[in-house]
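quick one: heme C bound model?
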Amino acid sequence: MTVLRLLQMSLFKALTLLKPLKTPKPLLFTLLALMFQSPPALATGDPEKGRALFSRCASCHQVGPSARNGFGPQLNGIIGRRAGSVEGYVYSPAMKNATLVWSEKNLKTFLKSPGDTVPGNKMRFWGMGSDSQIADLLAYLRQYP
Ligand code: HEC
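yep, here:
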């Protein structure tokens, strides 16, 4: 028996239990809709959503053809770039000496918790908790090699 079938059965059970409670119909339909939604696309990310999310970085970082270093280094080609390697940007010693390449995996960890990934670095950012938001952001940054 497939997992989906099991889910359907337990949903059916839940619905019969809820019925006597006069659960409003719209709620039931919402429940049903939630159950049968296709799973979100993982890992690929949506560059358009990423563009919007980049506003959280844009006070310190630029990306794109005319990007310059600001409070933080420019982020062109960040995926695959060596940490602390932009010419003319003054990094903290922690970032300068981090022997790290910004793979997507490392970026994910860093964006979730910058201070844990490169202890003592000077990026003041709380971190981004959501995997899907990080995937969107990386999809956006990938457009600027
Ligand atoms: C408050 C300013 C600020 C914000 C907001 C910020 N950063 Fe940073 N970021 C910095 C600074 C400053 C550094 C340099 C850190 C150092 O030298 O220790 C940095 C470094 C980085 C690096 C390493 C760059 C390199 O060349 O090694 C990446 C990647 C990065 N930031 C990505 C982001 C992303 C993506 C966001 C948005 C989700 C973001 N940052 C938000 C200030 C910021």
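The chain has a mean pLDDT of 88.
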